[in-house]
Amino acid sequence: MPIIWCAVLGLGPMEEPRSLIEWHWEDEFSTAERDKVEDWLNSVTGAVESTLGVYPFTVHFYIHRRKGSSEPVPWASTRRQYVQGVDFHIDPSFSLQAFLDDWTAPHEISHLSIPYLGQEQSWFAEGYASFMQYQVMQKLGICSEQEVGEIYAEKIERVRPYYDRLQCPESLRAGTGTQLCIGEVQATSCRSTSVSRRSMAWSLPTLLQDTSFVVA
Ligand SMILES: [Zn+2]
Q: 22: which strand partners?
């Protein structure tokens, strides 16, 4: 299996988000830790807006402390019922750059750009957010366009066995149908050879229809 490496590109000027953000500090954080978290999530939200547009609602961020983790954001989940927001469980001892390199915030904040579709349609929501996270990371300057293309191609290769096992009509195999087939894959970090333990759904025909990537 090919290992994806993204070059260290360095971040461009950080974009200030135009969406209204409401911060909820669920645990004790120092001023320096709050500043770092705000820099991180403001940058990601700005990149999401550049990619998808300004959100027409207040975005709520709930920040929880998680000590001794092996990654900056070991867990996150969205709130879609009474508010539109994300719970981030973070280890603030990681650097701002480590937070910016992490795919979780681009993924979770992208989720908010479409309505909650329900558990049964989570395959689409996850495929969408999993696709969008790399578009946002490219906007952030974490990955180049070529590297994002390589990540998509590698993920398509990884789900191919699942895709082949599914009872997909022939039209879907050609990427021309409207129904979708999914596979479970794991997330790859742009600047890391490690693969996250969290799995997510990928909708292969959607990727084939919406991008120029072709499975040979
Ligand atoms: Zn998700």
A: 60
